[in-house]
Design brief:
By secondary structure, the chain is mainly beta. It has 1 helix and 19 strands. A hairpin with a 3-residue loop joins strand 6 and strand 7. The N terminus is likely disordered.
Length: about 220
Amino acid sequence: MKKFPCNEVALYLCLLLYKSNIVDTVKFIGYLGAYEKIHPNFKVWSFDPTLFSKKRGPPELQGELDHDTEVTAVDLYLEGSDKLLVSGTKDGYIFIWNLDSMMLQSQHWNHQDVIVKVNFSPDGQRILSCSEDQFMKVIDVETGLEILSKDIGQPIRCATSDGKLVAAGVESGDLVIWDLMSMECIQTIQLSQRPLRSIEVSSKSRIVVAGGEDGSVYILKPDDK
């Protein structure tokens, strides 16, 4: 299948590429980002929410964030005076970008393997990262200092967080729920005999949706047995 240059397509085409497995990530929250598997660059667009109306137009390219290796995780924080983007890479680096200036704010080598998840805390002061090196870590955005670190005993393949809890899909196929404050495992749910590859949690209903390498999609609540 043809690989289209992301900076030449509109939002609806980016979504088409995403569904076609050419583009790995399309991120919305007032900004749109998408990157191609074969390139270590991340393009950022701004768009008007009315884009989804009948009179829609293409988003505007704001800039390109260059990385040395493939970007594997990304999150946005747009609530403070500075609009920030955090990206995690294949070689374990975390990059914090200022979206107003499109400049790199800081970078940190936190992991020894692929980063599968980066997530800003609700106040934007901390960043959670999860990696295939088996570690979950939390760093301070301002100083870059490592605040928390936990070896969970097996590679993390996917994760999501609300700032208090972390739901992680691991190599064994388990869904593991961790308390971020105590770094204690509060629940383990066996879902698959193969690794989980993606996971999301509904902010309203607290429903967890996970996808496994076996091709199955799992829908459950965190307290389901």
